[in-house]
Amino acid sequence: MALQNIGASNSDDAFYRYKMPRMITKIEGRGNGIKTNVVNMVDIAKALARPASYTTKYFGCELGAQSKFDEKTGTSHVNGAHDTSKLAGLLENFIKKYVQCYGCKNPETEVLITKNQMIQLKCAACGFLSDVDMRDKLTTFIVKNPPEVKKGSKDKKAMRRAEKERLKEGEAADEELKKIKKDVKKKVLSKDGVSKTGSTRKKSGSSDEEQNSPPRIKDVKKEEDDDEDDDDDDIQWQTDTSLEAARQSIQEQLNAVTASMVMISTEEKEKEKKPKATENGKTPHMKLVDEIKENIKTGIKANEFRSFLGSLSGTAQEVMNALYEAVACGVEKGFSKEVMKKKGYFAAAVSEGEDSQLLLLRAIEEFCKKTNGFAVKEVALVLKALYDGDVLEEENIVQWYQEGLAGSNKSSSVWKNAEPFVDWLRSAESESDEE
Question: Which controlled-vocabulary keywords does the entry list (predicted)?
Fold first, then answer.
């Protein structure tokens, strides 16, 4: 059976995975009883994931003729003699209105009927909800004959809920186990004569001169390490390296004059850690963003742009963050369209290897954290655009998503908005494996 890509805009794509059979028609009868039989209407409707009665009824509404689909025999008839090309054109209009997502043009959508009797298409790839024009004649027929609910959808929801409950129970069990281990450890330490604070020091008979003279910090640390080595080797000690702990330790060990001098030096070090502003009052990050913006405006070529990125100062992640911000900054809505316009620059930036794709994904995540507006809501559309543009690969997207859920920022709304697209990638992979 001859197959073709779903949607006229994808007809030239040899690797497009959504396909449907080519329409086959047959003229039956004579005179006033002449009819056009769409022989393979059932197969076409199955490929579009729509009932065959919808497509048959749409032909009748558009041609102004009576149409009927027989559920028992699976035959689709439209009164009158109609060319195959004409019906194929009407089918293309049906696909645009009732099959393809209005956001990403993906045909993997589900028909939903709201409480207000409105029809929406929910995309399984990007999660976008498309509002169907209710002025079309077919909408009345769809509302009266809603599509059957998939049995597997309820089962999947129940399985997901059960999985979440199991994870919660597992986390609670781990917490209880940790508490039990801590209690046992405290009992063992108390028996061995170790104090609850975890620090034991030996009393040394030092002279008055040694007590009055301010010892150096390195010597104090060395004495503490020697004292700790004498204790039980199985005990692991941890040192609090925060600024408050350093201040308290110095005040205890040094006299007033020496302590004040040391604290001035530590505060200066803390100030040095903070990002310094440039001469124009801009941070190094904003300076990188401005440099990349200026080069993009000049229309630099891909090879030259790649070498330009390599010449910038900063880590690879900092440069990638600045690149994405230079492209997406100032865009209030429609981030995926802007990303597709500048697709060549992202392709040049990630051409060095798969690690660079993870850097781009983390840059998208960082930009979404900063803006927390439409950039977060459209993160699935941006991922879909970069995936279709062969900039990002499926394995790297899934890896980035899993690391984000397991990381410290797992409650971010970025993962919630990216979940529909990642689920679609996983389902597409499983379907391809089955084929």
Answer: GTP-binding, Initiation factor, Nucleotide-binding, Protein biosynthesis
Are 325 and 256 in the same domain? no
What is the average pLDDT across 263-288?
A: 62
Alpha carbons within 13 angstroms on the beta-carbon side of residue 164 total 6
Instruction: Flag whether 233 is in a domain.
Output: no
Q: Can you give the pLDDT at residue 21?
A: 92
Note the pLDDT of residue 266. 55
Domain boundary among 84, 116, 144: 144
* Neighbouring C-alpha atoms within 13 Å toward the C-beta of 423: 14
On whether residue 256 sits in a domain, the answer given is yes
pLDDT value for 51: 93
- Same domain for 259 and 322, yes or no, is no
Q: Which of 213, 191, 214, 211 is nearest to 203 (CA)?
A: 211
- High-pLDDT (> 70) share of the chain, %: 73
The pLDDT score that the predictor gives to residue 49 is 92
Same domain, 288 and 429: yes
Can you give the three-state secondary structure of the chain, one letter per residue? CCEEECCHHHCCCCCCCCEEECCCEEEECCHHHCEEEECCHHHHHHHHCCCHHHHHHHHHHHHCCCEEECCCCCCEEEECCCCHHHHHHHHHHHHHHHCCCCCCCCCCEEEEECCCCCEEEEECCCCCEEECCCCCCHHHHHHHCCCCCCHHHHHHHHHHHHHHHHHHHHHHHHHHHHHHHHHHHHHHHHHCCCCCCCCCCCCCCCCHHHHHCCCCHHHHHHHHHHHHHHCCCCCCCCCCCCHHHHHHHHHHHCCHHHHHHHHHHHHHHHHHHCCCCCCCCCCHHHHHHHHHHHHHHCCCCHHHHHHHHHHCCCCHHHHHHHHHHHHHCCCCCCHHHHHHHCHHHHHHHCCCCHHHHHHHHHHHHHHHHHHCCHHHHCHHHHHHHHHHCCCCCHHHHHHHHHHHHHCCCCCCHHHHHHHHHHHHHHHHHHHHHHC
Q: Quick one: 246 and 367 in the same domain?
A: no
**Residue 331, domain extent:** 284-434
Give the chain's domain count.
Answer: 3
